[in-house]
Structure formats: C-alpha cells, structure tokens
Design goal:
The complex is a heterodimer.
Chain A lengths: L4 H5 L28 E7 L14 H5 L12 E4 L5 E4 L13 E7 L8 H10 L8 H4 L12 E4 L15 E2 L3 H12 L9 H14 L4 H24 L10 H14 L3 E7 L9 H5 L1 H21 L12 E7 L2 E2 L15 E2 L3 E7 L7 E2 L13 H6 L11 E2 L4 E2 L15 H11 L26
Parallel strand pairs in A: 1-7, 1-8, 4-12, 5-6, 5-7
Antiparallel strand pairs in A: 2-3, 4-11, 8-11, 9-10, 13-14
Chain B lengths: L1 H18 L11 H12 L17 H5 L1 E5 L2 E5 L5 H20 L10 H10 L10 H12 L5 H14 L5 H13 L2 H4 L3
Antiparallel strand pairs in B: 1-2
Helix pairs in contact in B: 4-8, 5-6
Classes of the chains: A alpha/beta, B mainly alpha.
Chain lengths: 456, 190
C-alpha cells in the first residue's frame, strides 16, 4: 500500500490544545481527545524463551532431559483470576506489583510454518512472512473514528529490522536526539505554506507527483510531507529532552508520555536491548541474567506507566494498551546436546504475550502450551509438525471460554489454536479498527477470532 | 485459450497490485549519502562536509533512512518521506543554504576551488554576469550533479530570475541552494 497524500497530511493534522507543560510535574493532558487511547508495544527481540517467564516447566522435566533450565529453581504456580494455572519462574518477581495490570497469553501460535526471525517479526507486525501492512499504523487510522495523531508510532530505542509497507509514520525518535533536534528546529523557520520559496518547492514536487512510477510516488510522499511539515516542525521544536539522570527506560517513557500528551504519536514501539536468540549453549546459559535484566526494564516501564499522570484523573497506564511480545518462542533444547550444555532454536508454535492497560481485562491467564511435564503426551497434530518433540506447541483453544481444550486433534487445523492473528484482532477491536483490516487465519479462512473475554 | 487469457489477466492484475506497494516508492537517499554527495561536489578533495554541523542531533541516519542488515538481508529502513523527515531535511538544508549564502561575504567553510570560483561569481548577484545561463547552470550542477533532467534546471532558473531579480546576493544564493537541495531529484533515490 502506498501511503496516500492524505495519510501523510494527517501527520500535521494536530495542533489544537498542544500546550507543552513542564515535564517534571507531568501536568494535565493537552490532548483534545475526550477518550484518549494509545498503544505501547514492548518487543523482546530474537525469540524469547517463554519458559523463563510465565510458561515455565518443573525441574523434573529438566532432570528427564526434556528441557534446559539454567535457572535451576522450581517455578511457582501463577493462577489467573479466571482460574487458569500456569507456572512462573522467580525471575518475574519484579512484575508481581503489576499482576492485576496485565493478562498472560500462553501457547500463542505465531505462524504455522516459518520459524525465522525476520519472517516471524513480519508475522508479528504484518501477519505475513515477507511483510505487508503493519498493524500499528491501523490503530491511528481515521477509520477508527478518532482524529489521527501526527505519527503512527515513535520508536525511542534501536529500531527493528522488519519488512513492512506502511511504516512511513513510524519514526525512530530517541530521547538522546530530542534536545539538539528541538533546539535546532526552534532556531529555524518552519516551511510555511505562504512562503514563496516553499511554494516553488511544492510546485516542483507536484510536477512529479502525479505520474506513475517510483520517483513520482516518492515525490508524492514528499509533497504530502511538506504540507504537514510546518506543524510537525513546531511540534518537534516544542519537545523537551528527558532528564539525562533518568534510566534509559525512564527517559524513553518520558518521551513517549510527551508524544502521547501532545498528540504527536498514537503508539510507541519499545525494543528491549537484550538479545534473546540463544542458539549456543553459552548464550542459553546466560538466560537467567538476560531475562532478569529484561524483566527489570519491563517492570520499570510498567511502573512508569502507572506513576505517570496522563491528566488530572488518569495515569498513562489508564489510557494506554500495552503488549509485550517476542517474534518467536524457543525450542526446549537443542538435539544431540547434553541437557546442561545446550542452546535452543526457534519455536513458532508457542509463544507468550503479556497484554494489559486500557480496555484489557487484566490478571487472567489465557491458553497454554503442551508438554507441561516429562510424562505428557502430545497430539498427532503436534507430531505432524514437530516429530522430534523439540518444540512445545499451543494447546487447542476454546475461544468462548478462553481456556485450553483437553482434546488432542488428529490433524493440525489452525482454527483450533490461539494465534497472533487473534491477539492483533483483539487490539484492533479495542481501537475500533474496521473489520476489513482484521487478520485472517489463512488466506482462505475467515478472520482470526477476537478474544472478546479479554476486553474489559 | 480462455484459461490462458484468464491467467494472463490475473498475472497483470497481480503485477499492478505489486506496483502499488511501497517497495515501488523512491526513498530518501539518507543522511550519509547526501553528506557524501555534497562533500564530493563542493568540499575540497578528500575532505568531508558533515551535515551534522547543520543539525547536530544524534540518530539522524536512522530518522532519515539508512541501510540496515539482518542476517543476509539488506534493506533501506525508514527512508519513506513523511512530515517529520521533511521538517528535518528542511531545517538541515536551510542551515546549509544559509552557510553558503553567508559565504558570499565570508567563507563559512572550505570549498573545492572550482565551486569557490562559481560561488564567487554568483555572489555578485544581482549583477548581470551572475544571472547568465552558463553560470546558473554551473551552480546548479555543482550542487545537484547530473541527477536531474534539464527542464528541472529551467524551472529553477526561471523561478530564481523572477523572484530574486533585485534581491541581495546572500539571500538569493541561500534561496537558490535550498531550492536545489529540497528538490526530489536531489533527495530521493530514483
């Protein structure tokens, strides 16, 4: 999809009520939206092993040689408000204060086929292995009935490598850039539409924008960008840099909060710096530290969302739907390696996602993966996809009760499983994204079911 | 035969759908590439004209488009023009153009001797010699290179002659430079 000129024009379609107030006191929101709603996606890059968080396995399974466990501690039961039980490692302790703020989704099938990082990151964002339209910009579409924010999303961290077609409104804006950027912009005249020179630039862009071809499409985007740039220039010039004594997560959250309050951005994509891709035994051995660091960052973000006022009545958490996801899960072990010296590979059949904040019923556990212990057997559907039982797989899912089904299907049918498509469609439902955008389970199948019971 | 025609129609339809994808959209050349082009054209041989001096913020490469690698895949990320990137390019190139304009009275940085000569003559604006087609073409090529077709030069020349006929040299050179550098032929991959 080529972003239309109108799509890009809307980046500049804010302005009213964007008074910048001092950051220190996190003053009342300036957004004119009576029902503000934002989205924060926290990405665990590289394929995070769910068994180190909320889909843990008993140590007896490691003793039986089924799954690596470099933490070496028995996990604890984690029981959702809906009565569903899973096991959680001690590493998730920093998230305990927020357990009523998010729900856990286990056994999420990311894709029925591909298990590569890029393909599965594309699946997470676009629902297709080789790219397409990302779901994040859809949350900012005027078709939702909301006035679009200037940008679809900011990325305050290192950007992601993905192949998506519609991220021209997703901007890698880091806290460290803001000070010099806003200061420079304050000292330069924005491209005013009544300026003769700007009119000439516009004329040249328009002269090329109406023709077919790549260059014209680019000129068309430049033209739309120029038309919106005056207001965006002023908006970026009004940003204040986060305090440098804050942690990277706090700085990012401060920037996100300001961008949300000032109607600059509908969403933010926060990529954790840890790499979860642990094929080598030594990498896998470091997982307790990797997860400990990552969970501390997630807890800092959650605390910041809770403590940061959006306006006089609401916290940032109250107005933001938050999702924590990785593109993949991981295998239980590497084949032909000793269980105490093994890395892990990619697992697209089971992943864990945390989701909370605005519009989400928190505190629940939805779904589960199979192979919960060393004695468990699996379905023929599982064996057909993973004959060597290297990967845990999501259990069949009952979309009415939001619980796993006890049956063991004879053959794989994606309609039986909780998929990333359902998670994205649930977020779509929250933001009133038109159903025409919903992800289908497969090209020839209907839209992945919305998890209505997860909606508050 | 009917099936063959239907298949051909389907292929054509798919091709046109693919033609509508963003993959078929020119992207910005990016911070590093523009910096390199300007260095080659106007800076002394072997020296770099660093765009950071005109907008000294971090991460402009990521903001305005840069090559990125994941495994064996290389892709230009974040290069699609939008209002943020246009605002940043406009601010950066405004400062760059002001430096060139200000160099009419005092060079703001070192130039390639050939470019310095062209600029020196252009800085006699609004004298008749500064308005000659040959000199304007020399200045255009000094900044734009051979990226744009001749009608694009003609549009720029006509605009400058009409709008800055009696204006001071510094103001005119600044506007000339900004008009060239904000042109899609200068900023976009073709």
């Amino acid at each position: 999809m080529i972003p239309s000129r109108r799509d890009v024009l809307r980046f500049g379609a804010f302005g009213a009520g964007t008074l910048l107030l001092p950051r220190a006191s996190f003053p009342a929101a300036a957004s004119p939206d009576a029902d503000p709603h934002f989205f924060l996606l926290v990405v665990l890059n590289g394929g995070a092993d769910s068994s180190y968080m909320f889909d843990a396995r008993p140590l007896s399974m490691t003793k039986a040689g089924k799954i690596q466990n470099y933490l070496g501690k028995e996990p604890d039961p984690w029981i959702g408000k809906n009565g569903v039980r899973t096991l959680a490692t001690s590493l998730i302790k920093p998230l305990l204060p927020f357990r009523d703020r998010f729900s856990v989704l286990n056994g999420v099938c990311m894709a029925p086929s591909f298990d590569g990082h890029l393909q599965n990151m594309n699946f997470l964002f676009a629902g297709k292995p080789f790219g397409g339209d990302s779901f994040v910009p859809h949350l900012n579409s005027s078709e939702t009935g909301r006035k679009p924010e200037s940008l679809d999303a900011i990325i305050p961290t290192d950007p992601l490598f993905i192949n998506v077609d519609n991220h021209s409104g997703v901007v890698p804006l880091r806290p460290g850039s803001v000070k010099a950027l806003s200061s420079t912009l304050r000292n330069v005249e924005p491209p005013r539409s009544d300026d003769n020179l700007v009119a000439f630039m516009r004329q040249r862009l328009a002269a090329h924008a109406g023709e077919p071809g790549r260059f014209s499409a680019g000129s068309n985007l430049m033209l739309a960008g120029l038309d919106g740039a005056q207001q965006v220039h002023r908006q970026l010039a009004s940003l204040t840099a986060p305090r440098e004594d804050l942690s990277p997560e706090q700085q990012s959250l401060a920037l996100i909060a300001e961008c949300f309050r000032l109607s600059i951005s509908r969403s933010a994509i926060y990529v954790l710096p840890e790499s979860f891709d642990v094929h080598a035994p030594d990498q896998a051995r470091a997982q307790p530290k990797i997860f400990s660091d990552a969970i501390a960052r997630i807890a800092t973000l959650f605390k910041g969302l809770t403590d940061t006022p959006f306006d006089a009545k609401r916290s940032l958490f109250d107005v933001t739907t938050v999702m924590v996801a990785s593109e993949l899960g991981r295998t239980m072990r590497g084949l032909d390696l000793p269980i105490d010296h093994t890395g892990t590979n990619h697992n697209q059949f089971s992943n864990s996602i945390l989701i909370g904040g605005k519009g989400i019923r928190a505190g629940m556990v939805l779904g589960a993966s199979d192979l919960p212990d060393e004695k468990a057997t699996v379905s023929k559907a599982h064996l057909a996809l993973d004959a060597v039982l290297e990967k845990a797989m999501g259990l069949p899912f009952d979309f009415a009760t939001l619980k796993s089904r006890p049956d063991q299907p004879e053959a794989f049918d994606i309609k039986d499983y909780l998929t990333i498509g359902s998670v994205v469609n649930t977020v779509y439902a929250l933001f009133d994204v038109p159903k025409a955008n919903y992800r289908s389970l497969r090209r020839d199948l209907a839209a992945a079911p919305v998890l209505h019971g997860l909606l508050a | 035969m009917t099936r063959l025609v239907a298949a051909l129609v389907a292929v054509v339809a798919l091709c046109s759908a693919a033609g509508g994808s963003v993959a078929q959209t020119s992207r910005f050349k990016g911070w590093a590439s523009i910096s390199k082009e300007l260095s080659t054209r106007i800076a002394p041989k072997g020296e770099t004209l660093d765009l950071d001096r005109f907008l000294p913020a971090e991460d402009m490469e990521d903001l305005l488009g840069s090559w990125s690698t994941f495994g064996s895949e290389h892709s230009f990320q974040n290069g699609l023009p939008n209002s943020v990137s246009i605002a940043i390019w406009h601010a950066t190139l405004s400062n760059f153009a002001k430096s060139i304009g200000a160099s009419c009275s005092k060079p703001q940085f070192e130039f390639h001797p050939k470019f310095a000569g062209i600029l020196q003559r252009l800085c006699t604006w609004p004298a008749a010699d500064a308005k000659s087609d040959a000199l304007l073409m020399d200045y255009w090529l000094s900044i734009m290179g051979y990226n744009a077709p001749e009608p694009e030069f003609a549009a720029w020349r006509d605009y400058v002659l009409a709008s800055y006929q009696g204006k001071p040299a510094a103001e005119t050179v600044t506007a000339m430079t900004l008009a060239i550098t904000m042109n899609p032929y200068f900023l976009l991959h073709k």
